[in-house]
């Protein structure tokens, strides 16, 4: 939910071309479906003579593109300390493969918990920190007739399911794939507990039965209708909900977690990398440097309402005046968790989605589903 369109980039493109008469920057319009965008890049790279000099990438594409030698290593172009001081750690890690940097962060993203402040106040509750507290508050508010549903999340079989699940998995202290050792953790007790929690929200009536068909927009609209107390979603929801009937009656916080464990926000940033086959590497780097100027990124955030990758912009006076929630958003997206940075990520995600869907819809038990997912993932990775 955070790709920038060519139309949104057009003002910056015009400014760049005016200030760089020796370079002609052309931004190619792409489909709205990010999977189709990835396919376009892949097809052009496989042909060996890509028309693209720069690639605007989702974080989960970086390992695949880097492993295939389709991107230039940018590690020597920027000081590591400067990089870490300037950008969110999750966005740096998301653009890194085998200790080499392949992109510069442009915008950030992270999953979080939205909650109704007015409903919690009526029920006499503080915002939950643990899974147990979320379930308890949901059930009590339902019993009091204050809400129809307690908790909304993305349960449809698609990439959003993997992104949502990795936050629950982190909250139970589990892991999906250790990218350094290829160890798979999907059949460990923590992973089974994570699936049990999601399945329980359905069987206990905390989440609607149809949640297994919901993506981001279905959950956002239902939350904005005022019938739900908790929602897991991305930052894009905040400005939209602020114009809805629940405006002024909701807030955000990091995702809940098991007692004694830590929460995690799935990193979903986008960045720019230089295509390995480009005939204009110096010009491509000049474009990246321009897009990463604070004033240019500020203009981009004002135009799109998306989340900055630069740490300083979360407290930027101009941005905070337009988006007052940015300072509260910083500790959420700073506490990021990555989807496995492995070259076979797309296949691994497909495996997880299939088995998770089977567990969530009740056609398999969480334990059997996760054992199947782990076995197939190990086969994929050759471990």
From TrEMBL:
InterPro entries linked to this entry: SBP (IPR006059)
GO biological process: maltodextrin transmembrane transport; maltose transport
CC per GO annotation: ATP-binding cassette (ABC) transporter complex, substrate-binding subunit-containing
GO molecular function, one term: maltose binding
Entry superkingdom: Bacteria
SUPFAM superfamilies associated with the record: Periplasmic binding protein-like II
Sorted UniProt keywords: Signal, Transport
Family matches, as PANTHER family: MALTOSE-BINDING PERIPLASMIC PROTEIN (PTHR30061), MALTOSE_MALTODEXTRIN-BINDING PERIPLASMIC PROTEIN (PTHR30061:SF50)
Family: Belongs to the bacterial solute-binding protein 1 family.
Name the record gives this protein: ABC transporter substrate-binding protein
Source lineage: Bacteria, Bacillati, Cyanobacteriota, Cyanophyceae, Oscillatoriophycideae
């Amino acid at each position: 939910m955070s790709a920038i369109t060519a139309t949104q980039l057009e003002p910056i493109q015009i400014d760049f071309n005016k200030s760089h008469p020796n370079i002609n920057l052309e931004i190619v319009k792409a489909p709205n479906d990010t999977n189709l965008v990835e396919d376009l890049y892949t097809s052009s790279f496989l042909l060996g003579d890509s028309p693209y000099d720069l690639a605007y990438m989702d974080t989960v594409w970086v390992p695949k593109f880097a492993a295939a030698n389709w991107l230039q290593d940018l590690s020597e172009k920027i000081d590591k300390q400067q990089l870490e001081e300037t950008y969110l750690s999750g966005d740096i890690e998301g653009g890194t493969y085998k200790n080499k940097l392949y992109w510069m962060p442009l915008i950030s993203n992270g999953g979080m918990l939205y909650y109704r402040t007015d409903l919690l106040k009526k029920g006499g509750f503080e915002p939950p920190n643990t899974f147990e507290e979320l379930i308890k508050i949901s059930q009590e508010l339902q019993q009091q007739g204050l809400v129809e549903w307690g908790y909304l999340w993305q349960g449809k079989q698609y990439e959003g399911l993997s992104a949502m699940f990795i936050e629950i998995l982190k909250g139970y202290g589990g892991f999906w794939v250790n990218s350094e050792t290829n160890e798979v953790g999907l059949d460990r007790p923590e992973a089974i507990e994570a699936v049990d929690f999601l399945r329980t929200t359905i069987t206990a009536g905390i989440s609607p039965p149809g949640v297994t068909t919901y993506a981001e927009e279905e959950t956002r609209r239902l939350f904005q209708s005022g019938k739900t107390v908790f929602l897991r979603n991305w930052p894009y929801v905040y400005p939209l909900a602020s114009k809805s009937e629940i405006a002024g009656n909701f807030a955000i916080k990091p995702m809940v977690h098991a007692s004694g464990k830590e929460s995690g926000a799935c990193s979903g940033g986008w960045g720019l990398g230089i295509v390995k086959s480009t005939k204009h590497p110096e010009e491509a780097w000049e474009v990246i440097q321009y897009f990463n100027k604070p004033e240019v990124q500020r203009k981009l955030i004002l135009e799109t309402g998306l989340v900055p990758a630069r740490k300083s912009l979360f407290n930027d006076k101009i941005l905070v005046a337009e988006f007052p929630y940015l300072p509260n958003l910083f500790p959420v997206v700073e506490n990021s968790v990555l989807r496995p940075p492995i070259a076979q990520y797309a296949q691994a995600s497909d495996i997880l989605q299939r088995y998770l869907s089977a567990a969530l819809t009740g056609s398999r038990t969480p334990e059997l589903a996760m054992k199947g997912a782990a076995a197939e993932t190990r086969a994929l990775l050759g471990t």
